[in-house]
Design a protein that fits this description.
Elements: E1 15-24, E2 28-37, E3 46-53, E4 59-64, E5 67-68, E6 70-77, E7 81-89, E8 95-106, E9 109-117, E10 126-132, E11 137-143, E12 149-156, E13 171-177, E14 185-192, E15 197-203, E16 209-216
Antiparallel strand pairs: 1-9, 2-8, 3-7, 3-9, 4-5, 4-8, 6-7, 10-16, 11-15, 12-14, 12-16, 13-14
Length: 217
């Protein structure tokens, strides 16, 4: 007697692409990144923006291409800087103006723009944040799925320390910004989850920072 054996197959990961990173050093409560590259147009293209700002403000609202974008997660605290991830499904065009409105003025900001295609859902599987004074390491523990895409952003308000993501399970550094000598460092990381949980870890010499991370499948 014979019987068929069905093996579970893991579907391929979504296509995660870093499109580019940009810094602004003006003191303002509204940061406008005009005609920023957002990659190749696609009917399922999710544009994800990792945003960091050097101040204690929070993100009030965001737009991508003139339409409201959804804030996935954000965190900020006195002296720690602000980190935020937001997203919008943008099916046409290769550039878009990205606007971030803050609750108060910040001294500088950066964005890294990513695209995700081939997702099962545009809703993030999980997200998390970490903040506190006088700690030189941040960890966000995400509940993931195999082949989930991970994006993270960290922001430091004091000094210009180098960021290290080497303690992370699956995320690796994509970008680091030192703001032209102003106090503060911003950075971003991304990767693909190998299992059903993933720790995103950033370490640095300065003691004040914030970290936001999210994953999609």
């Amino acid at each position: 007697m014979s019987r068929a054996i069905h093996k579970m197959r893991t579907s391929p990961p979504p296509v995660l692409t870093l499109i580019g990173s940009t810094t602004l050093t003006n003191n303002t409560s509204t940061y406008t990144y005009t005609d920023h590259a957002i990659g190749v147009a696609s009917g399922d293209r999710l544009v994800v923006v990792a945003f960091g700002a050097g101040d204690t403000a929070s993100v009030s609202s965001t737009t991508i291409g003139g339409s409201g974008a959804d804030i996935v997660a954000q965190v900020g605290q006195t002296n720690d800087g602000l980190s935020c991830i937001f997203q919008r499904l943008v099916t046409s065009g290769t550039t878009a103006t990205i606007v971030i409105n803050l609750s108060d003025s910040a001294v500088h900001s950066h964005i890294s723009v990513y695209t995700l295609t081939g997702l099962k859902s545009t809703t993030a599987l999980d997200s998390g944040t970490s903040k506190a004074d006088d700690v030189t390491s941040r960890t966000v523990s995400l509940t993931t799925q195999i082949n989930a895409a991970i994006i993270a952003v960290a922001e430091i308000y004091a000094g210009n320390p180098t960021l290290s993501w080497t303690g992370s399970d699956d995320a690796a550094e994509d970008n680091e910004e030192a703001y032209g000598g102003e106090d503060g460092t911003g950075g971003d990381a991304s990767g693909v989850a190998a299992g059903t949980s993933s720790d995103v870890v950033v370490t640095h010499a300065s003691a004040d920072s914030s970290l936001t991370a999210a994953c999609w499948r």
